[in-house]
Amino acid sequence: MSKKELKTNAMRILDSHKIAYEYQTYECKEFIDGIAIADKLCLPHEMVYKTLVTTGKSGAHYVFVIPIEAELDLKKAAKAVKEKSLDMLPVKEITAVTGYVRGGCTAIGMKKAFPTIINETAAGLNAICVSGGKLGMQLKLAPDDLKKASRGEYADVIV
Fold first, then answer.
1. For residue range 40-93, what is the model confidence (pLDDT) as tens digits?
2. Among 100, 55, 108, 94, which residue's Cα sits nearest to residue 78?
3. Where do the YbaK/aminoacyl-tRNA synthetase-associated domain residues begin and end (predicted)?
4. What domains appear along the chain, each with residue ranges and CATH number?
């Protein structure tokens, strides 16, 4: 496969912003959880983050990037985006809302630019790994670069 064929929308956006990143690919026919992916790629769990999409009481969508071993605190998350309450986006709606498939969802380059919150633990790391925009691909980049590319903010949103 040529390098051009490997480029995802997320990678093209990072390239256009001149943001440095590395990517790793792995064999993946269907979604597996972030912990299994980290183990498969021999990555420390604390540097691998998952992307979750929620719907607010207002009907607006919000993106949260949190450590793979953590759980989203819906109350803290709602407060961070100034919503009364949040619900997880149903799995069957992920592709229609984001343009990405479950397990390949990343905060960079969704169909629309949704407000994005990156858990504040990322700010203390040199690099984090997130989905690359398709199953079987992970991106490694500086947390501040993810924040810039996703137009995100840091906040404490985990249990």
1. 999 999 999 999 999 999 999 999 999 999 999 999 999 999 999 999 999 999
2. 55
3. 38-148
4. 22-155 (3.90.960.10)
